[in-house]
Structure to design on (568 residues):
């Protein structure tokens, strides 16, 4: 882009800055990975792995509730993602295609929910779940996560549906499909990228949420991963070896999904934003 | 199709919100809320008390102390994150060897669930054995009580939150930078503008609209950031790192007896503060001629 050549000094400075940034970004997760392969007794040595071992992983999987937590998290995440995307897609479609009184305020409400502090919703939700006997049940968390993820996802989906020409809806109607048929058979397949983005967003929200998970799920076998990881390192004792191994197992799937979806995520967020 | 949609949204957002506001006007706590224990159903016995909770909160210093630190925390986090994000994005926007590697590496923190990264940091910060202090020791400097001293704990939580937030900033700002036409820079260079002048007069105005959005978003996120503080310090030592959101959580889920009504009132106050901030912010932008 630039026509003039950079001086070697500026070039070195640029690389030094970028390398420093990269090192800061990569070091903590890498150190976590390295530590997970050390025996528990050497968790805090500064040396790289001296006695390479899978003991931490074996211990976490065989002797703790880790797999149960993983299962719980999986149920919650899949439940939230599937239901969330479905609701967000229908809502987004309705907002994109129908004009009705109260629509602009509704759009605003969807966006403003991003601003809701968890503190204003957690108490009423907790009491509702207690009333319905849904504490310590994955369903309770799924409903809770829907309240966080659906509004923003619906708002993003509207942006996507706005980019699909209305002509397609009309051709569906001419061919005798009802509004729902048009949506399901014609529009939804075209909105696949948008669905991928909202699905990914919901997945990440549910996988990484801490506050609700900590408050709503108690008792060793009911925890999700966010709660479970806390049990390794708390005021009663620290099992850093197990913590690191569990952390790696939790982070790797999320990072892989993120790696695939990252490009689309950025595009999707801006598509939703600019088309409002 | 509209009716069910409105219904679902109303149920999902409207119900908890109104219920939260209502609870904040009662004296609900652990002992008098409706609940089901096994097969026994216990009905609610709390009463409406009007604005009493708000009066109590606003007249106590704990709210104002927490608000002061929350404001400091948010300003520091957003300021540092934005500056670092913009700087790194400008560097990445140059033609530089290994650019795609740097770009991917620097957004890694975004791809890892925050609660996992926080534990990684907790390990590095460990006072007796953590790597940071071992490195300091090796250099002959006395170790720092990263999470044990009120001031250092504040620095530590801000550092971790910045670490978590920079990748999003880089990606957003890089997008904005790439939308600035290169000819502008060439023309400015012809006219003899130095690097700093080019940055001030082309880059900064060019990223303005994206910046104002991400700064607003990032302010809201940081203000409400729960996991970093809760997992790293639990608000401690003492109350020193407790922000409004974590304190509200503590009132209803950590302290005993659980005080649901006060916690809900804190939540409503936080929401009001954020709404107020957003309104002022938007007005300020509009006054400067931003179509937003």
């Amino acid at each position: 882009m630039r026509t003039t050549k950079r001086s070697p000094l500026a070039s070195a400075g640029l690389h030094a800055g970028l390398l420093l940034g990269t090192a800061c970004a990569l070091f903590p997760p890498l150190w976590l990975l390295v530590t997970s392969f050390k025996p528990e007794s050497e968790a805090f040595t500064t040396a790289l792995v001296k006695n390479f071992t899978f003991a931490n992983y074996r211990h976490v999987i065989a002797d703790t509730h880790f797999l149960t937590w993983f299962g719980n998290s999986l149920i919650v995440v899949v439940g939230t993602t599937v239901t969330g995307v479905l609701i967000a897609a229908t809502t987004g479609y309705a907002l994109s295609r129908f004009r009705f009184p109260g629509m602009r305020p509704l759009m605003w409400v969807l966006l403003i929910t991003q601003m809701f502090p968890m503190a204003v919703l957690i108490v009423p939700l907790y009491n509702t779940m207690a009333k319905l006997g849904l504490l310590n049940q994955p369903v309770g968390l799924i409903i809770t996560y829907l309240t966080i993820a659906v509004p923003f996802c619906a708002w993003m989906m509207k942006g996507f549906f706005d980019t699909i020409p209305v002509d397609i809806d009309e051709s569906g109607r001419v061919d005798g499909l009802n509004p729902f048929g048009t949506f399901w058979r014609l529009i939804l397949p075209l909105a696949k990228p948008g669905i991928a983005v909202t699905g990914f967003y919901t997945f990440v929200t549910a996988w990484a949420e801490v506050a609700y998970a900590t408050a709503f799920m108690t008792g060793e076998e009911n925890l999700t991963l966010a709660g479970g990881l806390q049990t390794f390192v708390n005021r009663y004792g620290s099992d850093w070896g197990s913590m690191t191994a569990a952390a790696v197992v939790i982070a790797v799937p999320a990072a892989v999904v993120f790696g695939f979806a990252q490009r689309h995520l950025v595009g999707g967020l801006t598509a939703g934003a600019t088309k409002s | 199709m509209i009716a069910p949609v409105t219904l679902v949204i109303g149920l999902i957002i409207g119900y908890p919100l109104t219920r939260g506001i209502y609870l904040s006007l009662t004296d609900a706590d652990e002992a008098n809320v409706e609940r089901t224990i096994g097969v026994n159903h216990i009905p609610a016995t709390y009463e409406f008390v009007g604005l009493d909770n708000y009066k109590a909160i606003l007249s106590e210093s704990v709210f104002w102390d927490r608000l002061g630190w929350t404001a400091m925390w948010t300003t520091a986090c957003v300021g540092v994150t934005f500056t670092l994000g913009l700087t790194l994005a400008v560097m990445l926007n140059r033609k530089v060897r290994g650019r795609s590697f740097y770009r991917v590496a620097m957004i890694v923190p975004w791809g890892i669930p925050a609660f996992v990264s926080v534990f990684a940091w907790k390990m590095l910060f460990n006072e007796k054995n953590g790597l940071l202090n071992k490195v300091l020791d090796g250099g002959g400097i006395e170790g720092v009580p990263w999470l044990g001293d009120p001031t250092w704990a504040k620095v530590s939580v801000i550092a971790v939150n910045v670490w978590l937030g920079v990748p999003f900033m880089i990606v957003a700002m890089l997008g904005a930078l790439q939308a600035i036409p290169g000819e502008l820079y060439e023309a400015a260079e012809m006219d003899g503008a130095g690097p700093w002048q080019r940055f001030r007069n082309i880059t900064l105005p060019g990223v303005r609209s994206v910046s104002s959005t991400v700064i607003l978003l990032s302010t809201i996120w940081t203000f409400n950031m729960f996991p970093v503080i809760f997992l790293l310090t639990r608000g401690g030592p003492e109350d020193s790192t407790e922000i409004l959101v974590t304190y509200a959580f503590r009132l209803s889920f950590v302290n005993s007896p659980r005080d649901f009504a006060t916690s809900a009132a804190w939540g409503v106050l936080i929401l009001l503060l954020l709404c107020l901030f957003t309104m002022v912010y938007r007005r300020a932008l509009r006054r400067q001629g931003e179509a937003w």
